[in-house]
Amino acid sequence: MRVLIVEDEAKTAAYLRKGLEENGFTADVATDGETGLEFARHGGYDAIILDIMLPRRNGFEILDEIRRRDSQTAVLLLTARDQVTDRVAGLEAGADDYLVKPFAFSELLARVRTILRRGHARQPALIQIADLEIDLSGHRATRAGQALDLTPKEFRLLSLLARRAGDVISRTVIAEQVWDINFDSGTNVVDVHMYRLRAKLDDPFSRRLIHTVRGVGYVLEDCGG
What we know:
Blueprint: E1 2-6, H1 10-22, E2 26-30, H2 33-42, E3 47-51, H3 59-69, E4 74-79, H4 84-92, E5 97-100, H5 105-122, E6 126-129, E7 132-135, E8 140-143, E9 146-147, H6 152-163, E10 169-170, H7 171-179, H8 189-201, E11 210-213, E12 217-220
Parallel strand pairs: 1-2, 1-3, 3-4, 4-5
Antiparallel strand pairs: 6-7, 7-8, 8-9, 10-12, 11-12
Helix pairs in contact: 2-3, 6-7, 6-8
């Protein structure tokens, strides 16, 4: 599981990162709102721990931007602001939970695990893009009513692209999410598997759904036409 910590207090950020990594998470840190938003847009995180009072952009602005593009990523607001009105504002803005400083790490860890479980429950069982249908629970995919004969890795790759349809996903993020390994950026394993997936998903049909963004990564979307 990958977690983004957006926290400008260095000691708190280091404490969180160390604790999360000791409990099996991979954690990144951003120390200002603008950097945090950039990480959130492109990092493919399962959860975000977000301070409200941040330089450059505050947590509410970041949360609003995240929810415009992504209804699934779990977000925990972590802040010294303990008024009921602040908590209500955070939850209404789309946060999954709200924890007030000072806090016990054990409570934060329990809350992160809880909102991650909720997030998995929110994942749709069926994703449809143009004439492509993906049954996530049944591990089946069809296009124009025809079953696609996908390997487990190909299905996982397609599922990642579909869950973030319309977003360009970098090769590094794909390697981390599909293979659970940080591949050297020079490897072509992602490109090889993408080639094989395209041969099954796109080549037999007139309209392509997987597109390459040169120098960046791949995106699954229906461009029409």
